[in-house]
Amino acid sequence: MGSRLREWFSRPFQHIHKKEGSSIYTITGKVPYDGCVSGVPFEYDIVMDGIVDFAYRDYEIKVKTCPEDSYYCANDFSPVATGSAVIDPPYISATDGTFDNKIEISFFEYSFNSQAYRVYRSANPTGPYGYIGSTYGDGTVDGTYVDYVSPGTTYYYKGEICTIHGDCSPLSNNYAIGYSSPVGPSGISATDGTVAQSINITWNEIPSAWGYRVYRSETSTPPADVNAYLPPEVYTNSFQDSGADPYTTYYYWIRAYDTNLSDWTDLSASDTGWRTYKAAYNVSASDGTSTDHVDVTWGNYDDAYINQYIVYRSITSDGEKVNLGHSSTTSLTDNLALPGHTYYYWIKSCDELNRCSSLAGPDTGYATLASVGSNGALTASDGTSTDHVLLEWDPVYGTDYYKLYRGLTAGSRPANNFTTSTFTNLYRHRGNPWRSILLLGSSLHD
């Protein structure tokens, strides 16, 4: 029979007759006859796809010639031909890491009379495949079977299609690979303002992981794209987000992957983190460049956010820090510094909401003491007494005490103090009428 009779099975007048007490079925129906060649009819090929109630059963097929009105058919049928139907194996697919606790197996091809989809599973592609369950349908919808598994599990699947009468197709020609995604890393933790330069994120390692990607969002919804991560990829269980804006709360997630970047875990649970302002840098206080003040300068990182600075001072490195005041620039003059005293200076950077960085510093600075007699006010008596020379000078601001030196010649610089006593600005000394020299700190004056 030839191909023109393929239209036959789409027509509405097929009939299936079962012989009484027999498992053999007779199919009757009309097919068109398109003419002859030298009185010999064309050969037709009847494809009975989708009309068979039972697969793997024998069917009797015979043909009778009829005119179009079908009332004057030939008296006899052709000799009987016997044939049987089979069911093609299904096409199936399985989810690839879509879920961490299950694998879904889907059937996309079905028989007209299919009733069940049977699922077989193996841990190896070559088998053996064992039956694990069925899902049921009516042949008009795709079938889906859910295989609940542990996270990070891979299986190979094949399937059968079965009719309402229990006849089943062969197993699928090809297997479908399905796997459940591993659970994302646990123990994620992001710092909350404890670090100024970055937000530091840590998590528990997954021994089988090759590397990790860190994901960030300002909302609780993680990025959907697996490639929307914060560079770079990391190979340890920690990450520094140095690109985070200060005082902005971020959500963080971690995903682990294998050596081929093909198997990904689920995203971890999220944790929030934020950072403070970076502390100022290069805090510098002047050392003796002035006799009445100390100049303090510094640099700052977060210029876009900072609009004020607070300067603190103490007299020891671990002493009480006194607020000297605010500055809108990166410098301040300490006019309250006593000459000859060393101070420690710290800087705090703040925004308009008074959110501040940690302290930067310290650096030490001091104002130098003016020399005794630098204004010409040092005098020594000349022969006004037979038992002493009277020295007089103006007091120097910030001085706690004075040291007295003397030499035998003008301009000489004695190596030792004349006395270890502490003097006021009035001193009498018995002896020769030598010229006296006063030295304060490292300043020497004739």
List the helices and strands and how they pair.
Layout: E1 15-18, E2 25-28, E3 36-37, E4 40-41, E5 58-61, E6 81-84, E7 92-94, E8 102-107, E9 114-122, E10 130-136, E11 143-148, E12 154-163, E13 176-179, E14 189-190, E15 199-202, E16 211-217, E17 230-234, E18 238-241, E19 250-257, E20 271-273, E21 281-285, E22 294-299, E23 308-314, E24 322-327, E25 331-334, E26 342-350, E27 360-366, E28 379-380, E29 389-392, E30 403-406, E31 426-429, E32 436-440, E33 443-445
Parallel strand pairs: 2-5
Antiparallel strand pairs: 1-2, 3-4, 5-6, 7-8, 8-11, 9-10, 9-12, 12-13, 14-15, 15-18, 16-17, 16-19, 19-20, 21-22, 22-25, 23-24, 23-26, 26-27, 28-29, 29-31, 30-32, 32-33
